[in-house]
Amino acid sequence: MSASHEPAGVPALNLKAQYQTIRDEIEPVVMRVLESQMFVLGSEVSGLEAEVAAYCGVEHGVGCASGSDALLLPLMALDIGPGDEVITTPYTFFATGGAIWRTGAKPVFVDIEPDTFNIDPHAIEAAVTDRTRAIIPVHLYGQTADMDPIREVAAKHKLAVIEDAAQAIGAAYHGDRTGTLGDVAAFSFYPSKNLGGFGDGGMMTTADPALSRRLARLRVHGMEPRYHHHEVGFNSRLDALQAAVLRVKLRHLDAWTALRREAADRYRSLFASHGLEETVAIPHERPGHFHVYNQFVIRVPAVLRDPLREHLAARKIGTDVYYPIPLHLQVCFTALGHRQGDFPHAEAAARETLALPMYPELTDAEQRFVVGSIRQFLAGYASPSMSTDRAA
Ligand SMILES: *Cc1c(COP(=O)(O)O)cnc(C)c1O
Predict the structure, then answer these.
(1) Residue 388 — pLDDT band, cuts 50, 70, 90?
(2) pLDDT category of residue 381 using cuts at 50, 70 and 90
(3) Is residue 161 over pLDDT 90?
């Protein structure tokens, strides 16, 4: 296509485009909350809890203040604390490890599968000790972790499974949606997530009524009824304004997911038609895993990643690196005693991955510009070698 038809740039995320399509539905529900002057929990939140639970196919939803709290509260409700160990991936947003740490328990990391970036289920059992209490698989970028072998090792050692589904609402594993794949699941409504609010918010889902009641109590300082405190929780309530907005957006979620998947397919065919698969690894969608593409993450040789990012930035193409430093190498976890080389697949991913623009409203012209710009950059290089993870 000619240069004159190129877009002026492509943002990594385009929330304004989405807002234009739903403004007329959003404004009246926001006004409804303003007129009610009921801002915290209440009927909007209980409505959203029921609707998200029904969407996932699970009995109970419990709203809370963020996805981070949606990880912390279940750990507390399972009485996990000092002396306990919780297994998770080192290649995730910080909150996954932070929640474990904040209970006083020890995060125990297990390396990832190089093709999906999710925890390697077959490496979990070697990390189980008599102190292990739970596993937190993360459905990274919108693709579910390989849950059957994870649930198998959990059942064998009587461990709880807490899904970190912050990036994966609507994703499915052999037909079952996230939120139903473990004992309890954590969702985030941070604006950049597939179901994003107008601020922070989170939700937990579970089939266990006793666990659901405990979660609902912990989010209000362990209080039930009013001013009777059974245990020390904290304040992690969900706002009615967020719930009202999210109830509108939930009705569009499946359509938006379909558009994300179409955009992912278009990226795939563009990379193939430009013959870039030698140098650029595109996301691998496992059979039986319904990927919802919160991110579309490519992988290039480490020496090219940052220069490619700069090349794209110069053309006003937004990209991001999720995540440049794996959790085991974060300064705050120095006491765990890890060093470079402990989790080589996570470390290679941290050096080689780049998230391209991905949102439901992404256009064909925008994607052609992104992939054309990547091709233009790579044309200036003789293909350097990727880590062996590239071939996996
Ligand atoms: C966003 C995210 C969280 C935390 O959610 P917040 O709502 O930002 O607190 C946790 N885990 C993962 C994998 C995430 O992407």
Answers:
(1) low
(2) confident
(3) yes
Q: Which atom of ligand 1 is nearest to the CA of 202?
A: 7
pLDDT at 80: 98
**Is the CB of residue 67 below 6 angstroms from any atom belonging to ligand 1?**
yes
**Statement: residue 291 has pLDDT above 90:** yes
d(CA 186, CA 169): 10
Best of 101, 188, 193, 239 for a ligand 1 pocket test (most atoms within 8 Å of beta carbon): 188
- Of all protein residues, the one whose alpha carbon is nearest to atom 13 of ligand 1 is 93
- Judging by beta carbons within 10 Å of its beta carbon (0-12, 13-18, 19+), is residue 82 exposed, middle or buried? exposed
CATH 3.90.1150.10 fits 253-379, yes or no: yes
Residue 277 confidence (pLDDT): 84
Numbered ranges of CATH 3.90.1150.10 in the chain: 253-379
**How many angstroms does the Cα of residue 63 sit away from the middle of ligand 1?**
14
Is 166 a pocket residue for ligand 1 (Cβ < 6 Å)? yes
Query: Which is the closest atom of ligand 1 to the Cα of 69?
Result: 9
Q: Using a 6 Å cutoff on CB, does residue 201 contact ligand 1?
A: no
Residue 124: what residue type?
I
Domain with CATH 3.40.640.10 in the chain: 17-250
What is the 197 CA–ligand 1 centroid distance (Å)?
13
Cβ atoms 312, 374 nearer than 8 A: yes
Segment holding 186, helix H or strand E: strand 184-188
Query: What is the rounded CA–CA span in Å between residue 107 and residue 335?
Result: 11
Going from the Cα of 218 to the center of ligand 1, the distance in angstroms, rounded, reads 19
Question: What pTM does this model have?
Answer: 0.96
17-250, which class in CATH?
alpha beta
